Amino acid sequence: MKTRRLGQSAIHVTDICMGTMTFGSQADEATAFRVLDRCFEAGINFFDTAEGYPVPPDIKWVGRTEEIVGRWMKTKPRDAIILATKVSGPSHVWFKSPCRGGTTALDRHHIRAAIEGSLTRLQTDYVDLYQTHWPDHDAPYDEMMDALDELVRAGKVRILGCSNETSWGLMKALAASERLGGARYHTIQNNFSLNNRRFEDELAQVCRQEGVSLIPYSPLAGGVLSGKYQDGARPEGARFSRYLAMEGRQAAMGRRFVNDRSLAATERYLAIAEEAGLHPVTMATAWSKQHDFVASTIVGVSAYDQVDPILDAIDLVLGDDVMKALNKVGKDILYPMG
Fold first, then answer.
1. Torsion over CA: 82, 294, 190, 168 (sign)
2. Interior CA angle at 40 toward 190 and 162, to 5°?
3. 273: in domain
4. What's the rounded Cα separation, in Å, for the pair 235 and 194?
5. Which of 135, 160, 164, 284 has its C-alpha lying 20 to 30 A from 50's C-alpha?
């Protein structure tokens, strides 16, 4: 597999990363182990988790995903795995983190508590990439970056990253690190897919100019690009089938991913995949990897049979004709996820 550098760090990762947010909820431990083993055997060395997983967030199972990943890692050489996890950050976006009573600020207290909890559940003494899961734009970035720098200096974390950040927040953090002379962000983990190309507007340029790598999540737009929600379908057990039947933030998130515009765009993407002789999951994964600012694309599954179409994208480079057709859909149906 191809490997790429994470930002300006010394760490190289495979250009596909296995995400784990369904492990412990939609996927049981036996399924998780099969998926992780299959990916490891295929050459993937990069695995992403979070203290708040699995999803949907719930106090009854918070932390279970890290525990599963930790037990699995005991079956593999630790140095062969690049492990990423996250400190929750404030609960002010799509969901309320169940960690530490939902009071997950990005201050020194919570950052220290979060890393100790993650290291215990993961049964390791260090994390390769430690990320802030959600930003807190009203909090002092100097304190946050200084607290994260302490973890690097202590050897508990190798490098730092952020997630769900804005251009302003990323630059604010980088400026704080430069001013303090401490560890900086090398990665940003944001939503990026054929149905959500907003990262290209400003953040892509920030990444290029500042030496930060995108590790995009949801390259299948929450599974929408697989086609499973077309024609009003609501597959049993699927995330947005559940979210659309709920209220509040989960319902709003479901409507953001599954709506008339996103389904219309997906219909055209499915036709392009069929004409190219590609599985739509394989095409969407390959498209995500095919950007200069992307280091590794984070994929996720809830069942073992979903793995192979993803792995088929390992060596796939989409031709110019396919890329042009995909780009035309993006221009015809701008921002289908809003």
1. positive
2. 20
3. no
4. 21
5. 284
Would 204 be classed as within a structural domain? yes
Q: What is the pTM of this model?
A: 0.97
242 within a domain of the structure (yes/no) = no
Distance of CA 236 to the CA centre of its chain: 24
- Where does residue 319 rank: exposed (0-12), middle (13-18), buried (19+ CB within 10 A)? exposed
Q: Tell me: the pLDDT tens digits for 116-165?
A: 999 999 999 999 999 999 999 989 999 999 999 999 999 999 999 999 99
Domain span at 51? 3-224+280-318
Residues acting as catalytic residues? 53
**Helices (H), ranges, 99-180:** 108-122, 141-153, 167-180
pLDDT recorded at residue 97: 87
Q: How far is CA 120 from CA 16, 114, 131, 187, 308, in A?
A: 26, 10, 17, 24, 32
